[in-house]
Specification:
Strand content: 25-35%
Strand order of the largest sheet: 2-1-3
Oligomer: single chain
Shape: globular
Length: about 150
C-alpha cells in the first residue's frame, strides 16, 4: 500500500513539474539557420490550450497569449518562415526577451509525444555535427537553433 502511495505521489510531483511550452522557430529559407524562443503561459496546462492559442494568434494576428513579434524587417533581403510547436517539458527555461543577441546554440528535439528536449552546444557547427550523428528518426524530430534564453534541467 505504501509503495503505491509513493508511486502516485511521485507521478503527481512529476506532472506538476511538466509545463506546456510554445516553441516558436523562424528558419531562414535556403539555409540551416534558425532562431527559437520558448514561451510559457502558466495558465495553459494542456497541449490543446496551446494549440488553440496558436490558432487564435495566427488568425487574428494578435497574440494575447504567447505574446511575441516576428520582426521580418530584420531579415532584409532574406525570407524566413515561422513554425510553431506546442510541447511538454520539465526543463527550467528563463523568460524570453526580444533582444538582439541570439547567441546560445541549442539542439532542439520534440518527440512523438510532444516532449521537448533542449541541449546546449558550444557552437552552431557543433550542433550541426550532433544533429547529423543522431539516428534517422531522432534526426527528423530535431533541429539546431540559436536562442537567447537559459535552459537548465
Amino acid at each position: 500500500m505504501f509503495a503505491l502511495a509513493a508511486v502516485l505521489l511521485g507521478a503527481s510531483a512529476q506532472a506538476e513539474e511538466r509545463q506546456v511550452y510554445l516553441v516558436a522557430t523562424v528558419h531562414l529559407d535556403g539555409s540551416n539557420l534558425a532562431q527559437s524562443i520558448f514561451l510559457n503561459e502558466p495558465e495553459i496546462t494542456e497541449l490543446q490550450g496551446c494549440l488553440d492559442a496558436v490558432r487564435k494568434g495566427q488568425r487574428e494576428r494578435d497574440w494575447q497569449q504567447y505574446h511575441h513579434i516576428f520582426r521580418s524587417d530584420k531579415f532584409k533581403g532574406f525570407t524566413g518562415h515561422m513554425r510553431y510547436r506546442c510541447t511538454y517539458s520539465d526543463l527550467q527555461i528563463s523568460g524570453w526577451y526580444d533582444g538582439p543577441r541570439y547567441n546560445q546554440p541549442y539542439l532542439v528535439s520534440i518527440d512523438d509525444d510532444s516532449v521537448l528536449s533542449v541541449s546546449r552546444s558550444s557552437s552552431q557547427a557543433q550542433c550541426s555535427s550532433q544533429l547529423r550523428a543522431l539516428p534517422a528518426k531522432k534526426q527528423a524530430q530535431s533541429f539546431c537553433a540559436m536562442g537567447n534564453q537559459t535552459v537548465t534541467r
